[in-house]
Amino acid sequence: MTILTSLLGTKAFGFYMFLQDANTAASPGASPGGSPGASPADKGGFSMYEIFKNLDAIAYTVVGILLLMSVYSIAIMVERYLTYSQAKKQSREFAPRVAQALKNDRIEEAINISDKHRRSHLAMVVNSGLQEFRAHDQSSEISGDEIEASKRALQRAIAIKTAEFRRGLSGLATIGSTAPFVGLFGTVYGILHAFQNMKTHAGAGIEVVAGGISEALITTALGLVVAVPAVWLFNYFTGKVDSFVVEMDNSASELIDYFLKSRTRRLNP
What we know:
The chain is mainly α. It has one domain (2-22, 43-267). Helix content is 84%, strand content 0%. The chain contains 9 helices and no strands.
């Protein structure tokens, strides 16, 4: 996908520059002194304003779709970045405090600390395990079934939090993979439209279609502008989620070790 977007961008930009040079070269001889007989391409030029001004309904629809994709992807990027930053910050505060509480066998204090760090992924996992462990804490000994119940509670918490962390990433992946093709559709339509104009003006040079093709290529460029950041951020956020999953798995394993040690202490006082 990355190779395809790079090729599309290179070819689109190169062809755009070729058309711009062709139009510039054709302008002086087409109508000396800026006579009223200048071609539409000469009048319009290749400024971004003129390109967007001359787009037709289909091209505007493509541009609108790409802009909606861009707004949606930016919203996901900002929301996910804030969520991951808060989770990381609260987890750094939570880990040493809950470790000290568990070291002193203060289960209730550890649960209260977890409740105060609701945005921390580690706090959610630890809280689920401790709640299950506390339910059997009053018994004289902790059976293997109770340890297994705590393991299942930890696994459920990890699965729920992982799904929450991955929310919205599929949208980024979809935008990153489809935006170039949406732009390419606009380009193909624009080039066909430009060739139809050339057929209407039989015998005319490239200046007749240069403006139309440059307008068509703008949709490919816009598609790449939308897709590339989405792909970059999707890969970055996926890496962050993977690291969070590893942290939750490690915390769950350490908590199970704590439960097993507690069981051993009760069986061998």
